[in-house]
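User: Sequence in, structure out. Go.
Assistant: Echoing your sequence, followed by the structure tokens.
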Amino acid sequence: MDKPIFIFGHKNPDTDSICAAITYANLKQQIGYKKAKAVRIGDLNAETCFVLDYFNQSEPPLLKDIKPQGKDLDYTRCPKIFENTPLKTVWDFMRRYGKAMFPVVKGDDTLSGIISLSDITYAYMELSDETILRQYQTRFSNLVEVLDGEIVVGVYGADWIQGNIYTDSTLNEDMPLSKGDIVITGHNKKLHKLALESGAGCIIVTGLDSTEKLEKDAEKQNVVLVKTPHTFFKTIKLMNQSIPVSSIMKTKDLIYFEEEDYIEEIKEIVQDSKYRNFPILDKEGRVLGIISRRQLIDFNRKQVILVDHNEKGQSISGIEQAHILEVIDHHRVADIRTMSPLYFRAEPVGCTCTIIAKMYKENNIIPSKKMAGLMLSAILSDTLLFHSPTCTEEDKKIAYELGRIAELDVMKYGLDLITAGSSLEGREPEEIIRCDLKEFIFGSYRVAVSQINTTDFQAVYDMKQSLQAVMEMMSQEKEYDLMILMITDITLDGTELLVVGGAKELLQRAFGMSYEEDTLFLPGVLSRKKQVIPKLMGAVD
């Protein structure tokens, strides 16, 4: 229950698709699925906008596809390694996490570079000069930290090491040193005296023996004294591990991915790369963690619930890569395939929201006035105010129950709804055609059927030529064998078919339409789902 569940209807969503997604997400949230989220996969039509405005309901966010992305990977969370982090710390992290690479971040957590085990190994081979800590701008605090040291006297004069590193074996009595230089020595009073007289600004004493006299002398001569519990040999070995990671990390030609990148694109790049691990960033460029080749094999598919459709061609791009949890629908069972068992509920009623309203009842939940109003709107829209042959007595019964909860006059509100949805003011022909367009595959035929409900048939018919021109263009672009616009007028109790395409033999078999005709009025036909699509399917058979 901790992963998002996206709930959506079909492309070119109608009022039922949008209201079903919203109200079902609300129901799922109330029964414990807090991350259930209503989304849309297409633009809203005028009728749906009227409904959402009427009930002061914000429109669901647009989801363009459901393809798995970087954020769906079980990437490895990694420790923050900043530019000034000493190499020893990085090495310890690599052993603890079993990773041979880590991203390095700036102060705002954005990517600065990449440090790998091979980088550290190569650096150790090269670090042999007494000037190395100064050259790599190593912080004095890094050196103390890596040596598990304790500053017992004094304060080093700068944040970064300003001088060279010497050991008592490299000192000569006549060698003058500066205040930035550091001398590493063991517990030998003669060597202590030599170190103090060298002019160095800092002395590091190894081992656990007492340094009481040296501390007093160092304080008198204003020399910083650092004690480390390690042996002289180990101290020399650890010293080079104090240089900052920024000194050897890679900063050019970095390969990294963002959480919004598609996994299929990530795989293509990874296959051509010699590396095995890669940083993953958020939208702002902040480092989230590391992804490996192995993690690209098994990823978390996005969880979805489909409402008001179960056909791949009507669903979102990438649906075959999603984990479909449920389908709530009132259409024919089509071609959606799933990778695992799911809850599938399809009922022969006029509207998906009729089913969802029943599910509220089954869970002993009374919908709010807003949710009831949205479900009522969907039923009135899908059943054309109960005139559609798809409408059942159950649709009517539930619609009036929802009307009482929403405190609405069902028929009066329904007329306002249909009128708002059928208004053509300011609408272009392409918008009219696309607002409720569905694609179908009937055998070898690719068919598109759009439907517009109106109370002003003549206004739509007056646009016949411009509508046909757009349909011709779309049909060629999408390679439809047949494209139909259903102009449905409930006041006339019928539908005018506007047709383009070469497969008119389907309409001839289904409705007796001749090849010469490009329009046909079908009295009593109001439903695409129940009165047109089955006839076309039968014509193919």
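User: And one key feature?
Assistant: The longest strand covers residues 445-454.
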